[in-house]
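Thread: quick sanity check before group meeting

JM: Hey all, I'm pulling together slides for Thursday and realized we never actually wrote out the predicted structure for the chain we discussed last week. Dropping the sequence here so it's in one place. If anyone has concerns about the input, flag it before I start.
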Amino acid sequence: MRAARPARHREERAHPVARRADAGPLFEYLLTRFTEPNEIFGPVDIAAFREGKYRRNTTGMLPEAEVVFLDEVFKSNSAILNALLTLLNERKYTSGGQVIRCPLISVFAASNEVPGDETLNAIFDRFLLRVRSDNLDAYHFSELLQRGIAHEIRQMSGQVPEPLLSARELVDMGRSFGQRMNFSDAFLSAYKGLVFQIRAEGISLSDRRVVKMLKLFAASAFIEGRPAADPSDFFVLKHVWNNEDQADILEGVVQPVLEAFYREHPDRRRVGALGVGIDALTGEVDRIRQILTGGAALGDVQLFSQLKALGEIKTALASLPDPRARELEARVAQLLEASFRSGRFSQI
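JM (edit): ok, ran it. Output follows.
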């Protein structure tokens, strides 16, 4: 689940996960309150209806998709939402008394609004993680432009990215994942403590989600090449909020547990919550220094923007164990000090 802007054209919003995973059937749709079940689950099978049987022709529709992207999911009507509940949770769809097992791997949804209507709680609960999609920070900006240029070129040339793995590999991996669902008593005890602390803060976390989250912990360990989950995987709990105001509360609950683990295992610290490496930060500092020392007159807004970027970089560097980060922190401090001391930057 993530917040995003609505798509102008559905064909342009094919989820990149589907393309890079070479997933087979992909289904995506922009939902509104006027969307009918036929548009999502397929039209009524006329031939069967003439024989007195009611069922849908699901060919090419959501029940036969492996990867699904639903834009503005919370704006759909109750008929669609109720049908989605079982499909998302049990990978089943009932049509005319016939239960169809769905090959669904993952569902992604987007919304401009976090649902406030209690009638939407059930469908919202089906999405384990919630991620806000916002503008990138300053030190991501150059990479944003480069990736954007490459994307536009691919679209103009009709080039399709090479898949990293096949949908079949994902399915086989999922079926064999049970052997990775082994957790130590210490891990489960720590997880229990976090769950009850989160609930004590007034953040609803259903038993269903509590159990489903275990698969995400195991997946996080698998991606990092570990045989079992450990406290570093608790970072995913930062994304179980039900409204954006709860994000800071979750940060306060989860981060101390992560920091305690990293103090004992400094080599395991993730590269900052922002996911920015030291090389990218060094390049951004060099870019800002060139702007400040370039001789061109900077307006107040321009100056503030560069100082804000330096402040963000300083925060990111503080979480990096790389020794080079300390040297770069000193450079950032020098730039900030000179900026505050004088409006002229030729001396930097």
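AS: nice. Strands lie at 2-3, 26-30, 67-71, 92-95, 98-101, 106-111, 131-132. The chain has three domains: 2-127, 176-268, 278-341.
JM: adding both to the slides.
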